[in-house]
Amino acid sequence: MQHIVSITDQGQVGIPVSVRKALGIKGKTKAVLEKKGDKIVIKPEKTFWQLSGGMKSKIKLTDAQLRAARDAFERNWAQE
User: Fold this and answer.
1) Do residues 34 and 20 make contact, with C-beta atoms less than 8 angstroms apart?
2) Given a cut of 80, is residue 75 above it in pLDDT?
3) For residues 56 and 71, is the Cβ–Cβ distance under 8 A?
4) CA-CA to 43 of 20 to 30 Å: which in 9, 12, 23, 37?
5) Hey, which residues does 80 pair with through a beta bridge?
6) pLDDT higher than threshold 80 for residue 43
7) What's residue 48's pLDDT?
8) What is the H or E stretch that residue 53 is in?
9) What CA–CA distance (Å, rounded) separates 19 from 16?
10) pTM of structure
11) Shortest CA distance to 40 belongs to which of 60, 20, 11, 76?
């Protein structure tokens, strides 16, 4: 799938809606840009929190429990 896009004076590129939908890009997203020869390759960067639903578990937590677990993880991360 090829699209003609514009590159602004500031180096910004608009990504067509059809491409964003196909890649599951919603809202602000970080991306990895790589130069390969005379080509530019842009790949959406997935964060840990964007992987929700990718790992199934029988453990069920409320939003409050999940928030508390995340906060504890962040506090203790550097101490381990």
Assistant:
1) no
2) yes
3) no
4) 9
5) none
6) yes
7) 64
8) none
9) 5
10) 0.53
11) 11
